[in-house]
Design a protein that fits this description.
By secondary structure, the protein is of the alpha/beta class. The chain is built from eleven helices and 17 strands. A hairpin with a 2-residue loop joins strand 15 and strand 16.
Length: 462
């Protein structure tokens, strides 16, 4: 719908001067601050990419980002499932402090259904400051594409309600916006639920990875005179595994599930390649910071053993063992970050907000748990490993990492286990009895990190 021009012809000179001023400011900002593209996979395991050792799945475009940038080998998601992980990513807080700490709430939030079963979900609140909020305030054009997963069942808690300028994708609060999975017939364009003509009547004409990249390119094209932040959150490789072609894996001796899974990742890698090519051709690439990672580890439905999705790490999605939270993490920034780097520094999702804030010159909230990684990315010495990294599913699981040590309890009521991740990355040797003092120190950190939540009250807090 076209908006009427409220200025008419009353102040043409002032309007023209304002336009020049706005354009000039935009150009100045553009030259001094980077564009940012943050790409998030969904349920991708640490071992799903070729550049992280996968011997089957082909990911040449993501591999190129890693080769020309930094590949982190000790990076962690915000949680082992989607909503709390994304909440940590966008708010700079760990799950002892975030509003959302699990996909489903024990109480509060809003009720709804999942697979016909009644559940409750919490959602991001108005007082939750997001990356979108601070970057928009700093003059960036901001956009979320595809999966938000922070609205719970509240249609008033979408990206446009939590600091972002534009949104194209699906919401939990609108079940019709994501069916059928990977080939949606309906899709939000900002607040309007619109038809995807290619997918009407289950035509499966356009995969949502392609749809998402098309929308991302369109957003950049309209906003490339300004610094922009594109948060591109793919569905891949979350189940159910739907894709029209399983090439180039059709003739390989793999299960059908493995073929579909691998094809989803490779197809999305090709879509990412189109986005990179667009940035190159439009001379945007050199001033664009690209980060690629995933929200949590490979799921139980994934061909974990067959394709080595989690690289042999213990556990999987929904568990706070390494297989549930350790992720590929790639940072690429041509001419600003040296290529062919591999870093083992401990980093995690709460670090994203402080990092992007420093790059953007944005004002950072005081209550974040993460630190800016910009000095580390710039090649300066930065100690990241002796701090506390923390995760929880309230009353169910808890994990804390400090340096080489990790304490974890992955089942309600079980004692903390202690692992020397430096020497035992697969968490095979529980050292709790051998090093009780270290375990006690980490247990004290757990108690300090947790704050009560109205959505997940512990028995002792009721």
């Amino acid at each position: 719908m076209m908006r009427k021009n409220s200025f008419h012809n009353a102040v043409p000179v002032i309007f023209a001067l304002s336009s020049v001023s706005i354009h000039g400011n935009a150009q100045q900002q553009k030259e001094s601050r980077p564009n940012i593209v943050f790409i998030l996979a969904d349920d991708m395991g640490y071992g799903d990419l070729a550049c992280y050792g996968n011997k089957v799945i082909k990911t040449p475009n993501i591999d190129r980002l890693a080769k020309d940038g930094i590949r982190f080998t000790s990076a962690y998601a915000g949680s082992a499932v989607s909503s709390p992980s994304r909440c940590a990513l966008l708010t700079g807080k760990h799950t002892g402090h975030t509003t959302i700490r699990d996909n489903f709430a024990k109480q509060g939030g809003l009720p709804g259904l999942k697979n016909g079963n009644p559940i409750r979900r919490a959602n991001l609140l108005l007082n939750d400051t997001t990356v979108g909020t601070i970057l928009s305030a700093a003059g960036y054009k901001t956009c979320v594409i595809n999966k938000w997963h922070l609205d719970g069942f509240n249609p008033g808690a979408g990206p446009l309600d939590r600091g972002f300028d534009e949104f194209y994708g699906w919401l939990v609060s609108s079940a019709d916006s994501n069916t059928p999975y990977y080939y949606p017939a309906l899709r939000f364009r900002n607040r309007e639920l619109t038809v995807v003509p290619e997918n009407v009547n289950n035509a499966r004409g356009i995969h949502d990875s392609d749809l998402s990249v098309n929308e991302g390119i369109d957003f950049i094209e309209r906003n490339k005179e300004y610094p922009f932040f594109l948060y591109l959150a793919f569905d891949v490789p979350h189940e159910p595994y739907f894709i029209n072609s399983v090439e180039p894996y059709a003739s390989m001796p793999l299960s059908e599930t493995a073929k579909l899974y691998a094809a989803l990742i490779t197809h999305t890698d090709e879509a990412i390649g189109r986005l990179i090519d667009y940035l190159d051709k439009n001379h945007l690439r050199d001033n664009t910071l690209i980060i690629f990672t995933s929200d949590n580890g490979g799921a139980t439905m994934a061909p974990i053993e067959e394709l080595n999705c989690n690289a042999g790490l213990r556990g999987h999605k929904a568990l706070l063992y390494e297989g549930g939270i350790k992720e590929p993490f790639i940072v690429n920034f041509p001419k600003k970050i040296k290529g062919n780097q591999v870093k083992n520094n401990l980093i995690y999702f709460p670090d994203i907000m402080p990092t992007l804030a420093e790059y953007a010159g944005a004002k950072l909230p005081q209550d974040v748990d993460g630190i800016s990684l910009k000095p580390l990315l710039d090649g300066k010495t930065q100690v990241t490993d002796n701090r506390i990294l923390y995760w929880e599913f309230p009353g169910q699981q808890v994990a804390v990492r400090k340096g080489r040590w990790k304490a974890v309890s992955a089942k309600k009521g079980t004692p903390l286990e202690l692992y020397d991740i430096g020497a035992d990355p697969f968490e095979r040797n529980n050292l709790a009895k051998k090093y009780p003092q270290i375990l006690s120190e980490l247990e004290r950190e757990i108690k300090k990190a947790h704050t009560p939540s109205p959505y997940w009250p512990l028995d002792s807090e009721k």
